[in-house]
Amino acid sequence: MRYVAAYMLAVLGGLENPKNADIEKILSSVGIEADSERLTKVVSELDGKSIEELIASGREKLSSMPVGGGAVAASAGAAPAAGGDAGKKEEAKKEEKKEESESDDDDMGLGLFD
User: Fold this and answer.
1) Is 87 a member of any domain?
2) What is the pLDDT of residues 66-96, one digit of tens each?
3) Residue 60 domain flag
4) Is residue 59 a part of any domain in this protein?
5) pLDDT over 90, % of the chain
6) What is the full DSSP assignment across 81-110?
7) Is the separation of the CB atoms in 36 and 75 below 8 Å?
8) Would 15 be classed as within a structural domain?
9) Residue 28: which residues within 8 A CB-CB, separation 6 or more?
10) How confident is residue 29, by pLDDT bands cut at 50, 70 and 90?
């Protein structure tokens, strides 16, 4: 990802087709050593392509991806229908979480705001 970001910075900086040396210069300016094999692959894949078109096609691909989250809502809705035992189990879980949260605060005396 860093190679793609550096490539895009070079394009935004005015270079139409950045070369390996251009990207290496950008990466080294922030202390990153470039892997020449990966860098060559990125440059060869992006050479001659418009960044704007690549971004547009990437957005189209991302828009077709499912986001998820439906299964969590369905399982949360089914829990109260279980009956009277469900309420007791929830209370037990809450008590366990309270006990865990108290033990999680144990930072061995290395508190951030002490």
Assistant:
1) no
2) 877 655 555 555 555 555 566 566 666 666 6
3) yes
4) yes
5) 24
6) GG-HHHHHHHHHHHHHHHHHHHHHT--TT-
7) no
8) yes
9) 34
10) very high
